[in-house]
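Query structure, 189 tokens:
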């Protein structure tokens, strides 16, 4: 995160699409954060580990990590180190999408709920609220997560034991712990 005191703070609500009830986080981040660092913040807030490729879809533009790949489909994404949140979503009610892991295709809707003055002595980013646990990495996207939840909740399911072992025990899909999210976010400051 930038070390200079920001002129403003963006309050964002990030919702993982196609989840019911919704999996979401509300947090505040410095408005001058680069999109590359914002991806790290979103991943930490949601619970993603961050080892997959990400993209921001903002209007007709796509921003992502710089990939030195020539392909037949055009230029590829714009470098997400080259712009900031305040440049691409400057106002309250601005919206865009964030995709994490092109294979599982975790698509998130990001809404700017407010552009605020920073609070004295508050360190950013900070999570304010959220709902439900993040799906585990590499579980197969929305359809795979639904199958995963069925398997871990049914002791007679043939994959029950393997999946519980894979996640290290029990996962409560309804759980959300703002203190744990803020612990992950503090590590990014």
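Result returned for the query:
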């Amino acid at each position: 995160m930038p070390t200079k005191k920001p002129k403003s703070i963006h309050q964002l609500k990030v919702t993982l699409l196609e989840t019911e009830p919704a999996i979401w986080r509300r947090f505040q981040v410095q408005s001058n954060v680069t999109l590359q660092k914002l991806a790290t913040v979103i991943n930490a807030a949601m619970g993603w580990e961050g080892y997959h490729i990400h993209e921001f879809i903002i209007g007709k533009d796509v921003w992502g990590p710089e990939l030195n790949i020539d392909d037949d489909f055009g230029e590829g994404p714009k470098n997400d180190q080259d712009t900031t949140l305040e440049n691409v979503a400057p106002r309250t009610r601005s919206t865009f999408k964030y995709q994490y892991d092109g294979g599982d295709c975790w698509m998130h809707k990001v809404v700017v709920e407010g552009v605020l003055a920073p609070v004295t002595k508050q360190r950013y980013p900070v999570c304010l609220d959220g709902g439900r646990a993040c799906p585990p990495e590499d579980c197969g996207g929305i359809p795979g997560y639904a199958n995963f939840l069925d398997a871990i909740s049914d002791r007679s399911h043939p994959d029950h034991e393997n999946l519980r072992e894979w996640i290290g025990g029990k996962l409560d899909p309804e759980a959300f712990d703002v203190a744990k999210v803020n612990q992950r976010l503090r590590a990014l400051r």
